[in-house]
Amino acid sequence: MGSLTHFTTIVLLISGFLSIQAEENKSSKPCEFKAIFNFGDSNSDTGCMSAAFYPAILPYGRTFFHEAVGRASDGRLIIDFIAKHLGLPLLSAYINSIGTSYRHGANFAAGSSTIRRQNKTFFDGGTPFTLEVQIEQFYQFKTRTGKFFLKANKSSYTRHFPRPEDFDKAIYTFDIGQNDIADVINKFGKEDSQASISNIVDYFAKQFQSLHYFGARTFWIHNTGPIGCLPVAMPMHNAKNHISEAGYLDKNGCVNYQNDMAKDFNEKLKDVVVKLRTMFPDASFTYVDMFSAKYELISNANKQGFVEPSRICCGYHEFGYHVYCGNNATINGKQIFTSSCEDPSKYISWDGVHYTEAANQWIANRILDGSFSDPPLLIEHACHI
User: Which residues form the signal peptide (predicted)?
Assistant: First the structure.
């Protein structure tokens, strides 16, 4: 009887080991994403605002594309490096009607976009393409492409649009929230921001639920970066000078209270992601700590071959006057022409708000391997629940 018990124990141990091995093999298999659908603001806009309003001009795009292609950088964005890493083409902006292909996904991100609706026009720094609108655009895109594939002659559609089954096998990426935090900073300052940030995150959660209803199953969610480290927020480029205030700036010259608001947003967002995992056990939700990845770069700029993180490659930002890259202005009777620096690859900040291609690539390399993710998965394994 003892021998039988011993044998049974061995069998159970072997079975358990094989089960663990099978699970590991399952989780180690790449997801083979067929498409990317991206939602966000100017940090991942690949041409929406440029197609909708005023087209981008050089020196935007000078480094990689050698022409302006609607990206708020000298070259590629993080979403471009994500696509490259997954072996997919760079994403076309959803509303860009010229020379576009949506075979492997679409980009709904738009500059100035927010999670929550703002009472601003485009000319006041607002956008009609809030996250809610972007998701409605996605739903329309999915519905209309589905109808194409019901037609007898499908050959012309298969070259340009994702197949209906590709939507389930896609990764849905998000990089939005920075403009919401900036709005809270402008309206509330240090105090009374908690309720507003909670409201923004709650609204974000509803949009995830909408996308799940529309069939999304793999979510890759960036939190918001250190907004207080954007050069335009720093006192040296701003009319407001609080350098003498104790605790106003951190060791890198970043504005502490602005970064604290971003951290509050990020903590609430992570809590939401945890809840969504429980609500939707058929989906995978990866939370990506972009704040930490970007802050690591800013903290080690010189060691990584970059100039001081407060320096701006393109634009004029002095004494509280802001003339953004590609624009000209007259300030105190002096004509200001904004040209770009000689070597953007040495800079973290492209225009005071957005990152250079070199910085975007550095950050992408850090997040794609799961080092800043919860759970800590390679992006190509993000579909595993």
Answer: 1-22
**Domain residue ranges of the chain, discontinuous segments joined by +:** 31-381
Rounded to 5 degrees, what angle do the CA atoms 360, 366, 371 make? 150
Range with the lowest mean pLDDT among 126-130, 156-160, 182-186?
156-160
Q: Does domain 31-381 have CATH number 3.40.50.1110?
A: yes
Q: Whose structure tokens read 């124990």? A: 9
Question: Residue 207 — pLDDT band, cuts 50, 70, 90?
Answer: very high
> Which of 361, 365, 323 lies closest to 344, judged by CA?
361
d(Cα 254, Cα 266) in Å, to the nearest integer? 17
Q: What span, in angstroms and rounded, lies between the C-alpha atoms of 250 and 172? A: 34
Which three-class secondary structure string do you get for 141-193? HHHHHHHHCCCCCCHHHHCCCCCHHHCCCEEEEEECCHHHHHHHHHHHCCCCC
- pTM, two decimals, is 0.90
Instruction: Please tell me the least confidently modeled range out of 48-62, 64-78, 225-239, 355-369.
Output: 225-239
Residues annotated as catalytic are: 42, 351, 354
